[in-house]
Amino acid sequence: MKEFLETGKISGTHGVRGMVRIQPWCDSNEFLCSFDTLYLASGRALEVEKMVPHGTVVIAKLRGVDTIEAAEELRNKVISIKRSDVCLEEGRYFVDDIIGCKVYNIENNELLGEVCDVSATGANDVWHIKTENGIYLIPKIDEIVKSVDVESAKIEISVMKGLFSDED
Predict the structure, then answer these.
(1) Are 153 and 101 in contact (CB under 8 A)?
(2) Of 71, 90, 130, 151, which sits 20 to 30 A from 52 (CA to CA)?
């Protein structure tokens, strides 16, 4: 499992005193605001002085980033959190943890494919399942996804008619 998990992108500056706007890639702005340290791909740690939700973005003041020029240097940088800094509730997992999981039909244990990507649509996530016949999109809803075991990289789904074929 990855030590660092991508959780957003610095999309721009906010004001002239070095604050940045972060576009979160996590469940909520509040979740991102709960961290004291963020990380860049280079491994550079960014200590958070203040972080607050602001509409669909998060406004952050990072230690040592005190001018608009310094903030501008961070534009378009992907930020990550350390996995060890997070304690997830039972039954919750990171998107990174399901990428590569094998997907099985719960009725007959047939291997259908594996998760290769996830799209957030608003109402629910859509999982991209790579099969030998191509990539199929399945909604991550309780009627379809029956179990997710990231430890054994196994997902069981109920295959509804037409989900993996052109049937009506």
Answers:
(1) yes
(2) 90
Residue 32 CA to residue 21 CA, distance in Å, equals 12
Return the half-sphere exposure (C-beta side, CA atoms, 13 A cut-off) of residue 2.
Answer: 16
Please state the pTM of the whole predicted model. Answer: 0.74
Rounded CA-CA distance 161/166 in Å is 9
SS3 percent helix, strand, coil of the chain, rounded to 5, is: 10, 45, 45
Residue 133 backbone phi and psi in degrees, to 5: -100, 5
pLDDT values of the chain reduced to their tens digit, one per residue, 168 residues: 788 988 999 999 998 889 999 999 887 889 899 999 999 999 899 999 999 999 989 999 999 999 999 999 999 999 999 988 988 888 788 888 899 999 999 999 999 999 999 987 778 889 999 999 899 999 999 999 999 998 899 999 998 887 776 554
Helix (H, G, I), strand (E, B) or coil at 57: strand
Owner of token pair 């509040």 = 30
Structure-token pair, residue 118: 């996830």
Show the tokens assigned to 20.
């940045």
Task: Please give the helix or strand (H or E) that residue 72 lies within, else none.
Answer: helix 68-72
Distance CA 103, CA 128 (A): 11
In this structure, are residues 8 and 24 in contact, taking their beta carbons and an 8 Å threshold? yes
